[in-house]
Amino acid sequence: MTYKSTYLSKKSKVSLNLKSCIALVFAILAVSTLFDLWSVPTPFTPPFQDVTNLTSLERAKLLLKNHPLLDTHNDLPWSLRKKELFKGQVFELPSSFATDIQRMRSGGMGGQMWSAYVPCSKDLKKKSDSIRETLEQIDLIKRMVTVNNDLEYAVTANDIRTSFAAGKIASLIGIEGGHQIDDSLDVLRIYFELGVRYMTLTHGCNTNWADSATDTPINNGLSVFGKQIVSEMNRLGMMVDISHVTHKLMRDVIAITKAPLFASHSSAHALCPTERNMPDDVIAAMKDLDGVIMINFWPSLITCKHTATIKDVADHIMHVIKIAGAQHVGFGGDYDGLDEYTAGMEDVTSYPYLVAELIDRGVSDDDLIGIIGGNLIRVLEKTELVSKTISDQTDVTKTNYPKYDC
């Protein structure tokens, strides 16, 4: 009895000692891991830094250093084509341009969605070269990215994160008008394969299936074929851009889209009542559909005048925050596509000053991380997820080809 008790006692002590050692090892590993996470920051999880004594502008620049700033509309590719200036490098362009890589770096930019814009015609019967011109613009953007080491081509939300972590400016492509597909779903699909990740449903002209904000409506919003185009964009994972369209068309998209709502470069109608801007009910739908409106910096869409200030731009951002929340607004500057610029925002170096203005208005760092780029990344990522859930469930509608005699 005594021997057995002693044996069990020794066995228990050995067991307890072994458990204690294992627990100690795990505790050391846990502390080591936490230390590593704290001491080796990533672009999305910077170490704590006391910002108490920093100015708003210094805080803004620190924020942009640690989190990607994304703008969803820049017309530099068309400006380069129009002025026949594209020779490869775009590091330092003339001051007549609002964008070059040197200034993008100064502005703290982490990513840009470049517009593969080509002009439209209000004569829908007129033969168009839009598809050829669009392909040329896509090619120009890709060559621009290839020859400039600061830029990195991206097509997904995760690509943006990877580019930023590598110190590159993520470069994505959007097309600015449904006229660029020439009424063809096949062309839309080819554009997606070439890297296009959003399409604005119209530009300044109607298409045969969608009404422009700056043309006389002929479709009462979206036609039946227009709704098929939106559904196909959802299936592909291409963001449906409702900038430039009528308010009726915006509401038509709200009623049918399965993906988040997206406006690449618009502002608030309540502050500047033009058809190009978004009414409050559409802004509210951004929250319901987990979307984002990227605020345009053009004075004509900010004050409805020829002049505006950074404070005026901030007013539009604050209005969206009031209606939908800070998770549903971002930047769509429209640089190199404007004839007039907001004072203090004449080129892409201006983003830190706008962020500083929002800091002065009490917008939190967490909300600012979303506004400068996190909101757009979320919308793009969710659009990708929607595509994966419906890609095998949706019939691929074919284009009605014309009849040929030969």
Chart the SSEs and their pairings:
Elements: H1 2-39, H2 56-66, E1 69-74, H3 76-82, H4 101-106, E2 109-115, H5 130-147, E3 151-153, H6 157-165, E4 169-176, H7 185-193, E5 196-200, H8 224-236, E6 239-241, H9 247-256, E7 262-266, H10 280-288, E8 292-295, H11 299-302, H12 310-323, E9 329-331, H13 351-360, H14 365-390
Parallel strand pairs: 1-2, 2-4, 3-4, 4-5, 5-6, 7-8, 8-9
Beta strands, count? 9
Q: Average the pLDDT over all residues and give the rounded result.
A: 89
N→C terminal distance = 106 Å
The largest sheet, given as strand count, sense and whether it forms a barrel, is: 6 strands, parallel
Radius of gyration: 26 Å
Strand percentage: 5-15%
Helix fraction by DSSP (H/I, runs of at least 4): 40-55%
Structural class: alpha/beta
Write down the secondary-structure element order.
HHEHHEHEHEHEHEHEHEHHEHH
- Number of helices in the DSSP assignment: 14
Uncertain ranges: 1-16, 28-43
Shape: globular
